[in-house]
Design a protein that fits this description.
mainly alpha; 434 Repressor (Amino-terminal Domain); HTH cro/C1-type domain-containing protein
Length: 129
């Protein structure tokens, strides 16, 4: 019998990661306490919007000393820009196109845009810690 699968909860991975970090747990710790693989935990945190069985989500919630409902609720409170930035950081094609398009700009505009991106990336990096 197949378990119930929760399909596409935006930002679920970010909510799991946030809770894990608040408990000062590593992905390895969470994997061990939930009896799941580090690869699976990493993939859920990275992509966040993938299908997950209720059993696996429950195991993660218990390991994080919380409930499935709380994780789902927290995922709705996670700001969309973080999830968007995470997706962009993994999208090499997008980054290559962006770099090539920036090279076509006048030097002053290219530098100003690059500085803006650095500011945005630093802002997200601080929020992610």
């Amino acid at each position: 019998m197949k378990g119930i699968v929760i399909e596409v909860i935006d930002n679920l991975g970010a909510a799991i990661k946030k809770r894990r970090r608040s408990l000062r747990m590593t992905q390895e710790d969470l994997a061990e306490f939930s009896s799941l693989s580090v690869n699976f935990i990493s993939k859920i945190e990275r992509t966040g919007n993938q299908n997950i069985s209720i059993q696996k989500l429950d195991a993660i919630a218990k390991a994080l000393q919380t409930s499935v409902i709380t994780l789902i609720d927290e995922s709705s409170k996670t700001p969309e820009p973080q999830a968007f930035a995470s997706k962009l950081s993994n999208d090499r094609v997008f980054l290559d196109k962006l770099t090539n398009d920036m090279k076509k700009l006048p030097v002053e505009q290219e530098e100003a845009l690059a500085k803006s991106f650095i500011t945005i990336i630093n802002t997200f990096a601080k929020e992610d810690k």
